[in-house]
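[Q] Does anyone have a clean structure-token version of this?
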Amino acid sequence: MKAIFFNLLLSVCVSGAWAQGIQIKAGDQFPDILIKNLINSPVRSIQPGQKQDKIYILNLWGTWCSPCIPEMDTLAKLQSHNQASIQVIGISDEKPSRLQNYLIKKPSKVWLCSDTSGFFYKLFAFAYVGQSAIINAKGKVVTLVRSDSIDQQMIDRLVKGLAVKSTAEFKEKPVNNNSDIFAVDSTLIHSFTLRGYIKGQHSGSMRYTDKSAFNGRRITFTNASMASLYKDAYGIVSEKQLIYELPEKEVSDFDHKETLYSLDLLVKPEQKDSLMVILQNKLLVLLPVKARIEYRMMPVYVLINKNFNQKESNDVKLSYSFSGQGYDGQGATLANFANDYLSNEFSLPVVDETGLSKRYNIKTDVAMRNREGMLKSINDIGLDLVKQDKKMKVLVFYK
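[A] Here you go.
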């Protein structure tokens, strides 16, 4: 899972040095930090760095993180089965109100904390959420692990004082702190760079808008798999639209840095409308894996209009953002909403058949990033999904 805290409910007594990003590692004594006002705890505060009668499991998570939800369900069961020996604390970057809503749906013996500054996330330098710090009864950090690896066998070893191997992944120190890691001169007419893994950079892509000096004619990828490069180049969103004629790991493997690429493409002003076609051609020539487009029958979700209630927009250009907490778009069509957002969130491609062709300001609120939460957020704005079979564009990987 690759994924991404002090407010009034989490009070931490800490010197300014901790805020500068000092990393706590396995084997370290947990710092003298007092955590107060836990949301659903019978005690007012805890101090994990002091001697206590339980093992604390600090799980970094969020209701916006879809893999985190089943992980929290597992941790809740472990908490119920081991009440005398462990206490799980779920630490999220969300506001207290969202966590309270989660507890209404899922009452739990796991204590929840709101950490909107990201303090603990930074303290452990975790690469992504869904990872946990485990602190023993002496206040020592005994291991840092992926939360999905915590099971009864691990709890038994911890209670006996036996070693547990750390499996968590951490952020690397960037080798280049520039905002533009490719250092492309804004006066250039065109340029192209293809390189491998760049230490300390997140995996992702950026397409420059016409508000930048590159006027919509540049796209950048950092630490991307071959599959993600081709997906963006061909406008494929859903994983279900990917067909592998070779082992999937040869095309999409974020766990092995040697398989990742970083790329920057700037085309001439007159080629702006052909940016993605040029990218496709370069990938086909330079990458060891090839891709082609085919059309196949497959199950999809169809987006339909029940009583759409979002306002029309005067914006002629699309501007949007989304996270596990919902979608916020200005000048968005329903096709944009279905393809760019919903196809990312559901297990199948989403096709717009609302019959609504205008631009809208669309905003959704996802209380919990699971199927139920996503469907409710869609229903709340007067839309629904129906499953059907349709002929769809698929991307076939081959050598």
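[Q] Thanks! Anything notable?
[A] The chain is about 20% helix and 30% strand.
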